[in-house]
Amino acid sequence: MASSWKKTRGTLRLTVTIPANSRAVIRVPLTDEDHRVQAPTEARKTQVTDQVVSYRFGSGIWTFTVQAH
């Protein structure tokens, strides 16, 4: 599994690569109640707290965008 991220002016872009025949839970960080997460349409949300939103995925490359409002 690999991940990369880039932060620019209130936006965090997180890309995660999950290898073939694998599954993973991806936890997207939140630092503010007013953050909005754009997740892939295949995303299955498994948990939401004040600090993270968790999603379950199979293999592939998945990109999330977190924007402060």
TrEMBL record:
UniProt xrefs under InterPro entries: Bac_rhamnosid_C
Domain annotation Alpha-L-rhamnosidase C-terminal: ranges: 2-38
Domain of life: Bacteria
Name by which UniProt lists this protein: Alpha-L-rhamnosidase C-terminal domain-containing protein
Source species taxonomy: Bacteria, Bacillati, Actinomycetota, Actinomycetes, Kitasatosporales
